[in-house]
Amino acid sequence: xxxxxxxxxxxxxxxxxxxxxxxxxxxxxxxxxxxxxxxxxxxxxxxxxxxxxxxxxxxxxxxxxxxxxxxxxxxxxxxxxxxxxxxxxxxxxxxxxxxxxxxxxxxxxxxxxxxxxxxxxxxxxxxxxxxxxxxxxxxxxxxxxxxxxxxxxxxxxxxxxxxxxxxxxxxxxxxxxxxxxxxxxxxxxxxxxxxxxxxxxxxxxxxxxxxxxxxxxxxxxxxxxxxxxxxxxxxxxxxxxxxxxxxxxxxxxxxxxxxxxxxxxxxxxxxxxxxxxxxxxxxxxxxxxxxxxxxxxxxxxxxxxxxxxxxxxxxxxxxxxxxxxxxxxxxxxxxxxxxxxxxxxxxxxxxxxxxxxxxxxxxxxxxxxxxxxxxxxxxxxxxxxxxxxxxxxxxxxxxxxxxxxxxxxxxxxxxx
Length: 416
Known about the structure:
By secondary structure, this protein is of the alpha+beta class. The protein has twelve helices and 19 strands.
């Protein structure tokens, strides 16, 4: 007797997901809570576990296709009694139906067996007529919605993987000429449908601009001493946290001094909310767009621990493995746009947060120190804040705490 598992509620008002990759095939035997499929939502890529044990009889939905919440996802037939006994304990353990990527780390649990995850190359059929594996499900969707066959595209990525650029080039080549955009008589070179993720980002940014009366202040900061401390630690063979980890630590200290900036505005009840702890969001550029995963409980971590968590959570976001809590739980955002080799930015606040702190690139500049002209390592720090929460004096005080810690890191670290 087959049992059919439907796509569960993904939370956050999400109503559908795209099938990225099936982790099992028809005929495979599965156990309770074994991940059976990767799906992509507007928030992240997650693994969906099976609540049933048995043999897979049907996969509902093709890779690259969309499945609505509540629609059939996978059918599993119960094994014959002798074989089913091997899975009795799995069934008795029950299923939490928890989506890996939405709060449950992979590998958690009490020793339940999992099938080894297939690599894209191993999972792909050997048939020459099969659909090539591509770097992202968004690439397949892009081709499908544009009416371009992915089978006819030659991939330029690693091992012939088809990239977004490959698909966009194919769309451009296939686009009919003479279609006018209605502006200056120019032809439309390309139309690219917005993905669910891009729509979600667009909505959040538009809401931030329309609801938050923001103001921006900035200051040039001397990083010379902070660089010197890190170089000294390296020379001594000591663990050396990243520059971003130090900035995160100083930001946490400033938020402790100004907790009103670590919260949000409840416009329904006309209340200003302050959080007891700090989940420090970090702006991260990924293949899917800009994300701001958070280092949870950043106020409890040392600089070295912050460095470890920053590396872990940013990499998880790039791979689509950040948890739902990490992706949506930030209370304040730190933006290192200097990584893109730019000096400054008037960033958009990550709604519903009330402020965002950003740093430009650190460059050698002529600087006056004690009346003497010298070369120092300078970067611009910008701070965008919700004027409903604080005024310019509070914003300036917050910035000076961070800037002073950067310029005199020895004394700052001693007092943290």
